[in-house]
Amino acid sequence: MTDTNDIEITAYDWVPDMARGKVKDMRVRWALNEIGLPYRQRLVGNAGGEKAPDHIADQPFGQVPIYKEGDLTLFESGAILLHIGEKDERLLPRDPVARARTIAWMFAALNSVEPFLQALFLIDLRGSGQAWHGPAKENLRPFAENRLRQLSAALGEREWLEDRFTLGDLLMIDILRTNSQQDLVRAHDNLAAYVERGTSRPAFKSALAAQMAAFEEREPT
Amino acid sequence: MTDTNDIEITAYDWVPDMARGKVKDMRVRWALNEIGLPYRQRLVGNAGGEKAPDHIADQPFGQVPIYKEGDLTLFESGAILLHIGEKDERLLPRDPVARARTIAWMFAALNSVEPFLQALFLIDLRGSGQAWHGPAKENLRPFAENRLRQLSAALGEREWLEDRFTLGDLLMIDILRTNSQQDLVRAHDNLAAYVERGTSRPAFKSALAAQMAAFEEREPT
After folding, report:
1. Quick one: pLDDT at residue B155?
2. Could you please report the per-residue DSSP string of A194-212?
3. Interchain pair B118, A119: CB under 8 A
4. Phi then psi for A14, rounded to 5 degrees?
5. Cβ–Cβ of A107/B71 closer than 8 Å?
6. What is the average per-residue pLDDT within A60-88?
7. What local confidence, expressed as pLDDT, does residue A132 receive?
8. pLDDT grade for A221, boundaries at 50, 70 and 90
9. What's the rounded mean pLDDT across residues A11-31?
10. Mean pLDDT for chain B?
11. Minimal Cα distance from A143: which residue of B?
12. Of B195, B188, B189, B185, whose CA–CA distance to B144 is shortest?
């Protein structure tokens, strides 16, 4: 891999209004901004149909972001964040215990919290207006509620999940703020305040502005 | 952290028959066996009700495995595997590109593949015999099918996801073999063969024997 000024991230050139500011390149932009690393963006089409073969070659699931740096092509926002974290201890502590705990929270966000919220999103997406929607959601909601209750208990009165802001917080906050079940998140005052704390960071705000600007670029065409 | 002979993993002393051989300490045992690292196991209760407070203090979601090594207490099997991988390039390549790609597949297993299968498991778990079960499953199944189709295409005719066995394969195979939607996995010959290839490894077989033995220990009581 070559110097860190050669970072490219791939983002969509268009998404529906409801998804703007929530696409997963946000978390990568945010992390890069936290440590002041510049990057280029490459915008790719998203509207309808199959993804282009070169997109699938870089990202097996046809999603964004794709991260390129020298001879590395990387997918999965969790892996991209961890790779960026290795560059700067402000994102990923160098102390071995603190480092491992940061990574634990990253996996917790992606595997112990998000999937239960995402299941409800899929039920809303496919079931809206259908008879099965209500009971399916009622039956699966307790799993998500339980995980958020456990997360709220783990956070307690602290500012961040461990003793300082890390990639674990960045990723957890991005999942809490972007998921479609905001009522479940807001049921916990400390989680709502935690999201507010994270999204008040200047690096988050500039990431949001950059993602929104990318969509606006395309508008006039 | 201290020497690597001081590793403790926490497993359940009992689970229902259908879960035996599939609890998540399996993947950690498997990884440790791949590199010949000894460990102690600590068995904890699982039957009914809330987890003990000291369990929650170590594992915010009340699950297993918990990994202890010196002054490190770690949760999330993905994070535990990555921590173990840092010890030995047989699990996690040292080459920076190969390392990052390995980590990408670990996150892919836990965030791009498992959640869509798990949503179907939750629907089965809560909906069996109820009117909403069929339509809910029918509507959410295509998401899981799509991810497995994409995974199958990415694997193609290769033996492993990259050019050699890594933690990415270990975790992906453990998720493919343990999830409740085996018909969806077996719909792809190359995925079925991939699972077979992984679970034929001696390190997997000894891990399975160790998990099963832990359950049998408790049986007479």
Report:
1. 98
2. HHHHHHTSHHHHHHHHHHH
3. yes
4. -160, 135
5. no
6. 96
7. 98
8. very low
9. 94
10. 94
11. B122
12. B185
Give A210 to chain B, closest Cα distance, Å. Answer: 25
Flag if A62 and B150 touch (Cβ within 8 Å): yes
B4 neighbors B87 (Cβ within 8 angstroms): yes
Taking CB atoms and an 8 Å cutoff, what residues of chain A touch B168? none
* DSSP characters over B11-66: EES---GGGTTTSTHHHHHHHHHHTT---EEEEE--SSSPPPHHHHHH-TTS-S--
Q: Which of B111, B118, B136 is nearest residue A78 as measured by Cβ atoms?
A: B111
The question of ipTM being above 0.90 is answered as yes
Residue with the two structure tokens 């988050």: A204
Residue B219 pLDDT greater than 80, yes or no: no
Length of chain A: 221
State how far the Cα of A137 lies from the Cα of A127, in Å rounded to an integer.
Answer: 9
Average pLDDT over residues B115-126: 98
Six token digits for residue B53: 């407070």
Q: What is the predicted pLDDT for the residue at B52?
A: 85
Each as own residue / partner, the long-range contacts of residues B87-90 (CB below 8 Å, 24 or more positions apart, any chain) are: B87/B4, B87/B35, B87/B37, B88/B34, B88/B35, B88/B37, B90/B34, B90/B35
Sheet holding A40-44, edge to edge: A40-44, A7-12, A67-69, A72-74
Q: How far apart are the first and last CA of chain B?
A: 36
Look up residue B190 and give its two tokens.
Answer: 């190359």
Is pLDDT at A30 greater than 60 in this prediction? yes
* Mean pLDDT (whole number) for A181-186: 98
Band of pLDDT at residue A2, cut at 50, 70 and 90: very low
Q: In A59-188, where does DSSP find H-type helix?
A: 77-85, 96-107, 114-127, 133-155, 167-178, 182-186
Residue of A1, A60, A82 lying closest to B96 (CB–CB): A1
Single pTM value for the model = 0.96
- Under an 8 A CB cutoff, do A96 and B1 touch? yes
Average pLDDT over residues A95-106: 98
Distance CA(B221)–CA(B201), nearest Å, equals 33
pLDDT digits (tens, 9 = 90+) for B77-87: 999 999 999 99
Q: CA A32, CA A27: separation in Å to the nearest integer? A: 9
**3-state secondary structure (DSSP) of residue A144:** helix
Contact B83 A61 (CB under 8 A): no
Our CA-based measurement puts residue B220 at a distance from the nearest CA of chain A, in whole angstroms, of 33
Nearest alpha-carbon partner for B212 in B17, B80, B75, B81: B17
CA dist A100 and B80 (Å) reads 8
> What is the distance between the alpha carbons of residues A208 and A193, in angstroms, rounded to a whole number?
19
